[in-house]
Amino acid sequence: MRQLYLYTRVFRIDVVVFTNSSTIQRYCNKYGMHSHPVVQTNEYGLPKIKYMLMKARQMYPASIFIYINSDILINPFIFPIAEYLDDFFGNSTNV
Protein backbone atom coordinates (compact mmCIF):
# COMPACT_ATOMS: atom_id res chain seq x y z
CA MET A 1 0.00 0.00 0.00
CA ARG A 2 2.85 2.38 0.73
CA GLN A 3 4.23 1.69 -2.72
CA LEU A 4 0.89 2.68 -4.27
CA TYR A 5 0.85 5.87 -2.22
CA LEU A 6 4.34 6.70 -3.47
CA TYR A 7 3.24 6.13 -7.07
CA THR A 8 0.28 8.49 -6.60
CA ARG A 9 2.76 11.22 -5.76
CA VAL A 10 5.49 10.41 -8.30
CA PHE A 11 3.36 9.48 -11.32
CA ARG A 12 0.25 11.51 -10.42
CA ILE A 13 -2.01 8.49 -10.78
CA ASP A 14 -5.27 7.74 -9.03
CA VAL A 15 -5.33 4.48 -7.11
CA VAL A 16 -8.62 2.66 -6.67
CA VAL A 17 -8.63 -0.17 -4.14
CA PHE A 18 -11.51 -2.63 -4.00
CA THR A 19 -11.79 -4.08 -0.52
CA ASN A 20 -14.30 -5.01 2.15
CA SER A 21 -11.72 -4.40 4.88
CA SER A 22 -12.49 -1.32 6.98
CA THR A 23 -8.81 -1.14 7.97
CA ILE A 24 -7.68 -0.90 4.34
CA GLN A 25 -10.47 1.57 3.58
CA ARG A 26 -9.26 3.83 6.41
CA TYR A 27 -5.66 3.58 5.14
CA CYS A 28 -6.80 4.55 1.64
CA ASN A 29 -8.74 7.52 2.98
CA LYS A 30 -5.76 8.63 5.07
CA TYR A 31 -3.42 8.65 2.06
CA GLY A 32 -5.81 10.00 -0.57
CA MET A 33 -6.47 6.75 -2.39
CA HIS A 34 -9.97 5.76 -3.45
CA SER A 35 -11.59 2.66 -1.99
CA HIS A 36 -14.78 0.86 -2.92
CA PRO A 37 -16.38 -2.29 -1.57
CA VAL A 38 -16.18 -5.53 -3.52
CA VAL A 39 -19.73 -6.12 -4.68
CA GLN A 40 -19.64 -9.18 -6.90
CA THR A 41 -17.67 -12.33 -6.10
CA ASN A 42 -17.49 -15.79 -7.56
CA GLU A 43 -18.46 -19.02 -5.80
CA TYR A 44 -15.09 -19.01 -3.99
CA GLY A 45 -15.54 -15.49 -2.62
CA LEU A 46 -13.00 -13.96 -4.99
CA PRO A 47 -13.85 -10.59 -6.57
CA LYS A 48 -14.97 -10.58 -10.19
CA ILE A 49 -12.50 -8.38 -12.05
CA LYS A 50 -15.02 -7.46 -14.74
CA TYR A 51 -17.26 -5.68 -12.24
CA MET A 52 -14.38 -3.89 -10.54
CA LEU A 53 -13.21 -2.50 -13.88
CA MET A 54 -16.76 -1.53 -14.85
CA LYS A 55 -17.14 0.35 -11.54
CA ALA A 56 -13.78 2.11 -11.99
CA ARG A 57 -14.68 3.16 -15.54
CA GLN A 58 -18.06 4.41 -14.37
CA MET A 59 -16.64 6.49 -11.52
CA TYR A 60 -13.33 7.80 -12.90
CA PRO A 61 -12.76 9.45 -16.29
CA ALA A 62 -9.49 8.01 -17.54
CA SER A 63 -8.15 6.54 -20.75
CA ILE A 64 -5.96 3.98 -18.98
CA PHE A 65 -7.00 1.46 -16.35
CA ILE A 66 -4.46 -1.02 -14.99
CA TYR A 67 -5.57 -3.95 -12.86
CA ILE A 68 -2.95 -5.21 -10.44
CA ASN A 69 -3.60 -7.97 -7.93
CA SER A 70 -2.64 -7.08 -4.36
CA ASP A 71 0.10 -9.69 -4.12
CA ILE A 72 2.02 -8.31 -7.10
CA LEU A 73 5.02 -6.01 -6.68
CA ILE A 74 4.59 -3.15 -9.10
CA ASN A 75 7.43 -2.18 -11.40
CA PRO A 76 7.29 1.61 -11.79
CA PHE A 77 7.97 1.28 -15.54
CA ILE A 78 4.40 0.04 -16.02
CA PHE A 79 3.03 3.60 -15.94
CA PRO A 80 5.06 5.16 -18.78
CA ILE A 81 4.65 1.94 -20.80
CA ALA A 82 0.86 2.05 -20.33
CA GLU A 83 0.85 5.69 -21.41
CA TYR A 84 2.94 4.88 -24.49
CA LEU A 85 0.62 2.01 -25.47
CA ASP A 86 -2.42 4.23 -24.99
CA ASP A 87 -0.89 6.85 -27.28
CA PHE A 88 0.21 4.22 -29.83
CA PHE A 89 -3.08 2.34 -30.05
CA GLY A 90 -5.19 5.46 -29.58
CA ASN A 91 -3.82 6.72 -32.89
CA SER A 92 -5.86 5.02 -35.64
CA THR A 93 -2.87 4.96 -38.03
CA ASN A 94 -1.08 2.52 -35.69
CA VAL A 95 -3.87 -0.05 -35.50
What does the model show?
The chain is built from 4 helices and 2 strands, in the order H-E-H-E-H-H. With 95 residues, the chain is mainly alpha-helical. Strands 1-2 form a two-stranded parallel sheet. Strand 1, helix 2 and strand 2 form a beta-alpha-beta unit.
Q: Would you spell out the secondary-structure blueprint of this structure?
A:
Elements (H helix, E strand, L loop, with lengths): L1 H9 L5 E3 L3 H9 L3 E3 L12 H11 L18 H13 L5
Parallel strand pairs: 1-2
Task: Report the end-to-end length measured between terminal Cα atoms.
Answer: 36 Å
User: Unreliable runs, pLDDT <50, ≥5 residues?
Assistant: none
Determine Rg (CA atoms, Å): 15 Å
Globally, the shape reads globular
* Average residue-wise pLDDT: 85
**Residues in helix, %:** 40-55%
Instruction: List the total number of helices.
Output: 4
Structural class designation: mainly alpha
- Report the β-strand fraction as a percent range: 5-15%
Largest sheet: 2 strands, parallel
How many strand elements?
2
* Secondary-structure element order, N to C: HEHEHH
Strand line-up in the sheet with most strands: 1-2
Give me some keywords for this one.
mainly alpha, 6% strand, 95 residues
